[in-house]
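Good day; I would like, with your permission, to put a structural problem before you. A protein sequence and the structure tokens that stand for its backbone fold form the material at issue. I would ask you to consider whether the tokens describe a fold that such a sequence might reasonably adopt. I set the record out below, with my sincere thanks for your time.
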Amino acid sequence: MHGWDLLIVTLCTNGYKVLSQNMKALSITLLTVQLVLIGFSHYYGGIASSEIQNIPTAADAQLHTVLYRVQHYSGLEEALGYLAAGAWLFTVIVLTLRKTINTVWAQLSMLLPVLASVMLSFF
């Protein structure tokens, strides 16, 4: 190989490594965002469930407040769930367009949130 050919091959190889590292960082970031959104959605859903259990014991004067809390926490649960689903869809689209679906971190960032959501639905 001549000097220029070696330089071009080196630049292309290093460029691929940088792209791969950027996609790994993006996959880890998207995975973290999805898991945090799923976790908080489940948390607020649990608070809404506990507020629903407080309805029979609430006094007539506090019933409006308890129902407001149930509606508020249920709305938060739904909104965070939709955000998590949107983040998952964004992850799938970006990783598909970048053709990095075969990497371990890309597969984890697509499958682990679904598994976490299914596991949390049992609790």
